[in-house]
Write a structure and sequence with these properties.
Layout (H helix, E strand, L loop, with lengths): L1 H35 L8 H10 L1 H26 L2 H7 L4 H43 L10 E5 L2 E9 L3 E11 L3 E13 L4 E12 L2 E12 L5 H7 L8 H13 L5 H11 L1 H17 L7 H29 L3 H23 L1
Antiparallel strand pairs: 1-2, 2-3, 3-4, 4-5, 5-6
Helix pairs in contact: 1-2, 1-3, 1-5, 2-5, 3-5, 3-9, 3-10, 5-9, 7-8, 8-11, 9-11, 10-11
Amino acid sequence: MRKLDRYVMSSVAGATVLVMMVVLSLDLIFAYIAELEDTRNDYQAVEALLHVLLTLPRRIYEYLPLGAFMGCLVGLGAMASSSELTVMRAAGVSIRRIVWSAMKPTLLIVLAGLAIGEYLAPPFERMAQSQKAVARESGQNIASGTGVWHREGETFIHLNAVQPNGVLHGVSLFRFEEGRWLASATFAERALHQGDHWLLQTVTTTKLDRDGTSLETHIQKRWETGLSPEVLSVLIVDPEDLAMTGLFTYASYLNEQGLQAANYWLAFWKKVLMPVGTAVMVLVAISFIFGPLRSVTMGFRVFTGLIVGLLFKYMQDLLGPMSLVFGFNPILAVVLPIAISAVVGMLLMRKAG
């Protein structure tokens, strides 16, 4: 029995690795082509390639659930096509044992995904986004579309680029007074973190009042703010690319500031429930093999797997923004697709048994 367990595990694991290699190769090629369209200033072909390579841990994390699902579908599907599963069942091996053997590689994938998503992907993603922003537009006195916006009290802050070592590039501060009156606009080429404050460098401040405007320039200027390099390291990447600890910390910080944090809570619950979602998708793949897809061609299995995987992803992608728009708990947007998939998988497995 142990040999059969190892055989099932190796078949599923090998198919998963193959699927991941194919998917990641295609994704990296298309990502690099897309990055070449963003080349500007010091951000050229070599820098674009480095940027794509730095995002590889994040891409691995994103595709692990799909890889586990497709790997199980392909691995067990190949065994079904060669009647190996039929022979195993005729020899007295229960469906439950085969399911458990196929699930074991998934557990390793889940553990690897948690480690990559928590410790490897976030710092590499911050590095990638920082280097790209610095190369493209760090010194511009504009609120670029690729920078970071943040609100603190009545001051709106825009940062063209944030480096993980506590250096900011292109700092814009817009301070408003009562009646939404823009009282001052400040731009600094750089800002250095000094422990309890930031030091702005090459600063230009335009003050606006009812009587006119005035201009001030400073070589250096002290900037008091509650933002720390740790908080900014969260801001420079998308919520989906952050570690769970960073998401929880920053979402709690936004709640304390009275700001909207629903998108960060949504990303947090997606990461927390990712292991459950992966296991459920693998269960669905196994139920397909023992149910409606046990006697079809491999090409049809792959096609069906892609459709089911995309439906699961699009359901989460649709319900997530809906939770932000209609104000219901983001955890429901994550749990509902998992629950539906789990019910479908268990019903199919019951029919197969």
